[in-house]
Design a protein that fits this description.
This protein is α+β, with helices and mostly antiparallel strands. Helices cover 43% and strands 28% of the residues. A hairpin with a 4-residue loop joins strand 3 and strand 4. Helix 1 packs across helix 2. The strands form two sheets. Strands 3, 4, 5, 6, 7 and 8 form a six-stranded antiparallel β-sheet that branches. It has two domains: 109 residues, no CATH class; 72 residues, Roll (SH3 type barrels). It contains five helices and eight strands, in the order H-H-E-E-H-H-H-E-E-E-E-E-E. It is elongated and about 95 Å long.
Amino acid sequence: MQINFEFLNVLIFLFPGLISMIIYNSIITYKDRKILKFILYAFIFSFTIYIIAYLFSSASPISLHVVNNGDEKISSISFHKTSLFIILALSVILPLLLGFIINNNLLSKLLNALNVTTKTSKISTWLDVFGERRTYVIINFKDGRQLYGWPMYYSSTYLKGQLYIHNPKWIENNKYIDLDIHGMLVLNEDIESIYFLDKPKNK
């Protein structure tokens, strides 16, 4: 029973961090996805979750009870439902909150305003621009063509450089030619530059 209790203790400690990392991975784009960093971040999440959970409930989520029955020791394991619920709730809330802060550059904007750093939380300028400038674009192709539309989806870096342009229109002689399709996937090897418009063009 002692071995089982120690195993459960380790499992309960790691499980919140693993849940948090799965959620965090699904909403954050970052460069390094090595398994060692995943495990390290899971430990950090778990440690942080348990510190916060202790502020709400100091009870241990799992307890071992040993009762002497003559020469025999009877062991039993009990779970503290309130502590487990708080830990599980934090496992979901914490990565969502952190993801919101990072995806909206909230911490970076504060540090930039304080002149602490000029960096952002995004992994590339490509992602910075498309995340901040949610506007219509004009794509200038290397062969001289121009395409107008809404960048509905975009890759995380220019190296991948894929754009899905919703309701695309070719621009020829300052006229917009509707393609009458839902969207077009554009690859970076065809792009020379991209204009970000302040407002939709009159067509």
